Amino acid sequence: MADYQPSSTTMGEPPSANPTDDQPSSSSSSASPHPISPRRLEAIAIQACRKTLQDVTEYDHSQCERWNTEIIHSILERLIEDASPKGAHKFIVNSTIVQHAPTAKGTTTTTTTGEGRRGMHSATAGYWNLQKDGMWNYKLEGKGQGKGRSGGEEDGLEGVGAGAGAGAGAGLDVVVSVIWVAIA
């Protein structure tokens, strides 16, 4: 049991008066080899959110269960398809939709002053084999937040940005967590 160690990851963003574009939006806390590269995990998360939220124009609490279910199932399907080696890991996916608070002007669009933002802090911990198991988190912000990124065609990120249709201007963010546990 010596190779099993506690591992944790924390992701949070309190309201900030000066948000910067260079703050990381994803984290990986384990030393384990990823069954899917972090860049590919990011592409999968972004694509799932874009597909689900492409026509969303405003936060609707009654739709959140459906949106989360679609995001989670889409990510799980891709994880199972893309993981290497095949069948060597179990996957757990969590999706959290965070509503922006209305501003004084009645909109939910965040300004550079942080107005309209709600604070959020999330933490996850596991007791597992650091050589085989791990976790990864990503926060996809609504359109205009500037935290998305574009990548190359090889990892599926070409032309993919956080604001490109993923709840664009809808006053919401999506936080995705992926946990993998080796079967053998």
Give the helix/strand layout.
Blueprint lengths: L3 E10 L12 E3 L9 H16 L10 H19 L6 E11 L20 E10 L4 E7 L31 E11 L2
Antiparallel strand pairs: 1-4, 2-5, 3-6, 5-6
Helix pairs in contact: 1-2
Q: How would you describe this structure in keywords?
A:
single chain, two-stranded antiparallel sheet, 6 strands, 28% strand
Order of helices and strands: EEHHEEEE
Instruction: Tell me the number of helical segments per DSSP (H or I, 4 or more residues long).
Output: 2
Query: What is the residue-averaged pLDDT?
Result: 72
**Tally of extended strands?**
6
Q: Indicate the structural class.
A: alpha+beta
Strand content: 25-35%
Main-sheet strand order equals 2-5-6-3
Q: Give the uncertain stretches in residue-range form.
A: 10-32, 143-165
Percentage of residues assigned to helices? 10-25%
What is the makeup of the main sheet? 4 strands, antiparallel
Shape: elongated
Q: What is the gyration radius calculated from CA atoms?
A: 17 Å
N- and C-termini, Cα separation = 14 Å
Can you offer a commentary on this structure?
This protein has 184 residues and is α+β, with helices and mostly antiparallel strands. Helices cover 19% and strands 28% of the residues. The protein is built from two helices and six strands, in the order ββααββββ. The strands form two sheets. Strands 2-5-6-3 form a four-stranded antiparallel beta sheet, with helices on one face. Helix 1 packs antiparallel against helix 2. The radius of gyration is 17 Å and the shape is elongated. The relative contact order is 0.29. About 25% of the residues have low confidence.
